Amino acid sequence: MAEYQNTTVSSGEMAQRFIEFVLMQAQNAAFMLGQIPHPQTGKAEVNLDMAQLLIDQLVMIQEKTKGNLNTDESRILAGTISNLQMIFVEKVRQEPSSAAGTPPQTSPKTEPVSQEESAPEQAEADGKKKFVKSYGS
After folding, report:
1. Whether this model's pTM surpasses 0.70
2. Is the domain of 16 the same as that of 82?
3. In this predicted model, what pLDDT tens digit does every residue of 14-63 receive, in sequence order?
């Protein structure tokens, strides 16, 4: 059985480990956003679902550690999240029919009106179907 060694780690070392962890997560997210080419193929590959998961994890860490980070840790974490979110938005705009399948949360849905509801309007609209916006329910 291995013995457990009770070693204390300095706060400076812990801060360095935290920053390394954040940067490792950021590197993984950048890879998923196609910012870093695949090592075997040399081509950038985009996986928006995984990138969003990694960014969301960093946001969760930011929320869970609020008030417990030093200035450098907070600054690096916030800057990393901000940069990744901007790149993510750019990628979503570049690939609207991407495999992510996650439309922006603020976009309204449009649904066709059933024929029973739209019958009076269709008569006056030259036979064109009417659409109504639904903002979630």
Report:
1. no
2. yes
3. 999 999 999 999 999 999 999 999 888 889 999 999 999 999 999 999 99
Residue 121 in any domain: the answer is: yes
Question: Domain tally for the chain?
Answer: 2
Mean pLDDT of the chain: 77
**CA pair distance 93, 91, nearest whole angstrom:** 5
Contact (CB, 8 A) for 36 and 44 = yes
Alpha carbon dihedral 86, 90, 95, 97, in 10-degree steps, equals 60
| Same structural domain, 76 and 125 | no
pLDDT category of residue 9 using cuts at 50, 70 and 90: confident
Instruction: State how far the alpha carbon of 69 is from the alpha carbons of 16, 18, 20, 65, 72, in Å.
Output: 12, 9, 14, 6, 8
CA–CA distance, 69 with 72 (Å, rounded to integer): 8
Amino acid at 91: K
- The one-character DSSP state at 107 is P
Q: Which of 30, 32, 28, 19 is nearest to 77 (CA)?
A: 19
